[in-house]
Fold these 4 entries.
Entry 1:
Amino acid sequence: PYDQTAYLLTEQRFLNPSSKLKSFNNRAHSIIDHGQVDHLEDLYKVLDVLQEDKKTIVRHLNKEIQKRTKRTVTAAFYDVTTYSFESRSVSEYKDFGLSKDHKVNEVQVVLGLVMDENGIPIDYELFAGNTSEFETMVPLIKKIKNTYHLKQLIVVADRGLNCAENLFALKEIGCDFVIAQKFKNSAAEIKAQILDPDNWEEFICKDDGEGENLN
């Protein structure tokens, strides 16, 4: 029962995020009848089907979000993290890499996530656990820009994604960017530019989204 099993996983992820085993055991406490979901293996099997349908599901969700929020994507907030497994078995995606949780003895996968200006996810991508986070941003941003035909897009990310290769690649695909830079590691001339009062403007963003320059 694909629909019921997928619904159960979604319901439990919202109400009581936990393991697949606990989600399966909690099915009897739901206000929805999950009687057809009678094997724990169904929860794992449906994950493969959901992965196959990922592209369609994500596009449908974005279409519905667009209807309800009048979303205009002009900025993409990107971040990357890792998810580890209690395992040392390497597979297609699971591999050893630089763990955000310092779990160096466990295999992991790398997840890249893009959100809009309201903090609502647009899309995500899984990468092999040994993938450098530097290599994750541009492919996903390029995919989103092409999929949703975005002419103007400003990419916002932390300094963990800041490298010359990424910045040049973003410009090549037509994106601007706001990416953090560690001040003390900057060149002297860059520090001087940052500290020069003539390079700063006072700006207020009003409740209606309009801006006002105070200079």
Entry 2:
Amino acid sequence: MKKSDREIMEILEAYDATESAHSAAQLAGVDPKTVRRYVAARDQGRPVTGAGRRPRMLDEYMPKIEEWVERGNGKVRADIVHERLVAMGFTGTERTTRRAVAQVKAAWRAGHQRTYRPWITEPGLWLQFDWGEGPKVPGPDGVLRSTLLFCAWLAWSRFRVVIPAWDQKLPTLIACLDATLRRVGGVPTYVLTDNAKTVSVDHVAGVPVRHPQIVQAARHYGTQVHTCVPFDPESKGGTESTVRLAKADVVPTEANLREQYGSFAELEAACEQFCAKVNSRKHR
């Protein structure tokens, strides 16, 4: 019968006090063999409170599997690992190898997780913006056209601005930025966005080359445009969250039960209502 954690600790404590298996067994009320088993497990560094694990024929190959997973940045395939192990003399099945590789990959991911820390900002320092896919509304000719949602997020105050648009060309972008700054009532020190062609025309040695017109617009308003790390949307999570919230509330879906828009003006009114709702709500 397996002992409870408390009983195991009492057995080990009795052995440490007497340094004799028979004396400790008398104090703990167990068999001396039980005392020796738990003491041996503790001295060998094996877990004494959990279920024991029998030795596996793959144990001697585990250091090599860990090396291959580390070299492959956690992406090495289990079938490739099994082929290499068979060439080294391993006689087990591929299922055993897959289980071991999955275990090593899980440990590798646990040790290489991205660390998230609170972003402590200053008032008026950062403004983030991004584009999201909006609903389809009738255009001037009556034909349904796709729309876009310009979503801006002012750090520290968490003030959000959502503006619908027909496209995300450079003139539209500058017009949306102008409308956002007017709603905010000021100009932030930095504006952060992704690496769209309207902002960064190229990357040279990893350094983004800004679009000359966006640089002129930023100089006109007295701010600086920065871009996040390519293919890393988490580096501008504030505006990513704004896009997600705006699409969940403004775009008609089965979840929000919102009806389709009859005109672009109705979409604009819905965006204004969304901004009024989220900006008037007290943040926790």
Entry 3:
Amino acid sequence: MGFHRGSNRYATTRAVELDLAAAATYAQNFGDVVHAGDIVRWLDEEPTPSVDVVLGGPPCRGFSLIGKRDPLDLRNTLWRPYVEVVRRAMPRAFVMENVPALLRSGEFAAFVETFASGDLADYEIRARILNAADFGAAQTRKRVIVIGVRRDLDHPGHPLPASGPRATVRDAFAGIRGFAGDTALPPQKTQFRGVWRPGAFKGRDLHITRDWSPLYQQRFRSIPYGGNRHDLPDELSMD
């Protein structure tokens, strides 16, 4: 969505998403151009289209600091079919997103090595950790953004942080209607790939709360103003 909002020069040719609900959401926003299934199977079954840009975000669960960080997690290697898409499409540029811990992993070293020879050596790769709070989001959210550009083109580099104060949660919540604590989404459903899914919903439909368990309510009460999960006592820790 950010890529589309940032430029009106591009349209999505094909998308691949394993999670059916996420695929349905993608289709609702960008048209039914999404393959709802495994990317490896998609590579086997369909020719890769010729495109100018490839965007991707392989799973981050195996790298995330709040996860188990299991080096044997098979999801850690799903950057490989992403690179295969780049190799087949040979776009002008590609962008890959993941959590910062990716940079310290052996998988990222293998990723860089993949671009050291053959056709993929035609790409100049730059990686940098960016914080969404520096670009208008009311949330501290750091992600590594890998940008690869063909060497016959000028590499644009990474965007610079916006000047001025960061947006706050108070800014983000401005104008949102008050509510009495609804915990259920509206009842409408949409059929996608033969399966009925909840939705489609507008942003205002999603303004509901969760029925938080007593444990989570204890955690909320234990975090001081301005604090976070790292301030929890050991008995309420989420680690």
Entry 4:
Amino acid sequence: MDSKLTGVRAVVTGASSGIGEAAARALAAEGATVVLLARRGDRLRAIVEDIRAGGGAAHAQQVDVTDAAAVADAFTRIADDLAGIDVLINNAGISINDLAADADLADWHTMVDVNLNGVLHASHAALPHLVAAAQGSRGVADLITVSSASGRRVPKPTSNVYAATKHAVGAFCEALRQELGPQQVRVGLIEPGFVATEMTSNHDFGELDALEASDIAETIIFMITRHRRCGINEVLTRATGQVS
């Protein structure tokens, strides 16, 4: 397989379904060697087998992004096995919406642990490898984080902590962009609106034609296949009919 991303080594978190799975498949289809990270090992291995059956290069690492030590160990193994890491796609996330007065505090902690700390853990573990890779023949490395349109504005009261984690992720990514741009590491943030995935399976979209995971995967491919002089730092994408 020889395409836009031949020779690129990519890691995708939250890759067992939805946007993460779609991103991993899209990366492999463009020639990248992809490592899929998530908690559901059986699901990961099934996706990897399918990618390989189609001629792609993929590997699975069963990791919980809330476990900082496990994430660090996983990235060390990946970098050793692949002789580096060129791309990180931070995608793992969870949404639990409820009015603050009715919420279970444990749900708030879960969202902070997955949506924010998971991004911090993976980014911290990947950074030295991305900086090193940017000095290679490709001349650039990429750190892309899938956030949410809720990271720009709070759509409803029940979005409270979910939106808070996404706002925090946006601030963190902007700081990374300022720090890492001079080292040729591009930092990008994608803020999707309604996407039909496992995470939104209980959401009633009504007549809305929601985005699909493949739409976000295509955006990721666009961002990381630009010339190294061009960094796409922030993309807000909503379903055409989405108002909020």
